[in-house]
């Protein structure tokens, strides 16, 4: 099949994405740059390809929602994540290779105190960042770490399943929304009756999922979850905004009681042009941070993070700059507070 040849070529070139749209050649994203392959494709060719990769149920969901995430494995090539969508009335597709197994935490460039948080038997650890920032890779690394560290039943709820986990010291039950469960919320409710030690939620999208997630932490489970946000305080606000106003105060107190920490990450282009470098900030739920959440003063969290020596995004970006791994331009674009970045870099706080 021609498409399988393109997937093999993408792997050989180290491509991070394969982009297929009508009226243009297939593009491979290699070291951040788009490289065309072959002749332009017709709408019929793209549609045939997209639907050939889906089951009948997935085709129906795609037609209704006009977009779909799914994953497939190919003998000799490995596993790929696909996002199918419509553009100007025609199907299109982006494919991304998934490594054969999750990478260990120590290879991902994550905070050194993360394993300590993962050793907790109960509580909530949030992973946040923009789309495409590697949140799924980080969650998979966390699952691998727990799976190798202790005998635990880990239940993951994903859309779609990307990395495949094998039993190690513990066992992992992976459930895919749309195939194994109707929704994140229904799968999470069921997970509480499936003897879990750890529950992993691929994305918190609605209030029902958020509410059940807090119940899971209150009943003695370790919960790992991701959502879209750009800073640790914003992550807290984003999660609480999913609750209706009448239930927000109760949720605020539950979150203040059960939160372990918030990891926010983004991928920054490397100066060496060999992929991307992980930048992060790590907020640990200290007594002061818990009090600020409980009192609704999340705007003060950043000040306490700095005062308590927690890693902020600006601090991490400056460290990467001084190591010669990223450019000042990229760091400036990704810093939540550019003035703070320049102050940390130059040692002079601007007026």
Automatic annotation (TrEMBL):
InterPro entries recorded: AAA+_ATPase, P-loop_NTPase, PilT/PilU, T2SS/T4SS_dom, T4SS_GSP_E_ATPase
SUPFAM superfamilies: P-loop containing nucleoside triphosphate hydrolases
Membrane spanning stretches: none
Start and end residues of each Bacterial type II secretion system protein E domain: 192-206
Coiled-coil stretches: none
GO MF, one annotated term: ATP hydrolysis activity
Protein family: Belongs to the GSP E family.
Name used for this protein in its record: PilT/PilU family type 4a pilus ATPase
Species whose genome carries this gene: Thermus caliditerrae
